[in-house]
Amino acid sequence: MTYTSTDPRRQICAALDQTQRQVDAVHPSQLALPTPCAEFDLKMLLAHLVAVLRKLTLVGDGRDMTLVTDPANDVVEECADVFRSARSEFDQVWAADGKLGEDFALVWGTMTRNELLDAYTHEFTVHAWDLAQVTGRRVELDPVLAHAALD
């Protein structure tokens, strides 16, 4: 994919890259650990992230995101592989430049592609930090993404 500086896919891909690095560092023995998200242990947070990727893939493909179970029920010890597979499907659907002119109807309203991808860029940025906190990894978030998420 080739992105312009205003293309929201550039930012969400950067957020997904840093999230993937955190997911890759998860050891199966850590899956029951609590997270900064009170409703999720680590396994459930990972399952939520996989579900969000799948929802975005469906939306990008013009389908209903409510068809996705959230949190996903197929996240097991090989969580990095499941995340990577969901990411690959997301990348394939969102690679088409035609997606950039569309508005997307969601359960709670209509969003432009910039609003949609921007919101989820922030979600993945924050959850990358959450993952680092749980696993004890020193994390250096992309400062542009981190500042935007804090705003």
From TrEMBL:
<dbReference type="InterPro" id="IPR024344">
    <property type="entry name" value="MDMPI_metal-binding"/>
</dbReference>
<feature type="domain" description="Mycothiol-dependent maleylpyruvate isomerase metal-binding">
    <location>
        <begin position="14"/>
        <end position="132"/>
    </location>
</feature>
<dbReference type="InterPro" id="IPR034660">
    <property type="entry name" value="DinB/YfiT-like"/>
</dbReference>
<protein>
    <submittedName>
        <fullName>TIGR03086 family protein</fullName>
    </submittedName>
</protein>
<dbReference type="GO" id="GO:0046872">
    <property type="term" value="F:metal ion binding"/>
</dbReference>
<dbReference type="Pfam" id="PF11716">
    <property type="entry name" value="MDMPI_N"/>
</dbReference>
<dbReference type="InterPro" id="IPR017517">
    <property type="entry name" value="Maleyloyr_isom"/>
</dbReference>
<dbReference type="InterPro" id="IPR017520">
    <property type="entry name" value="CHP03086"/>
</dbReference>
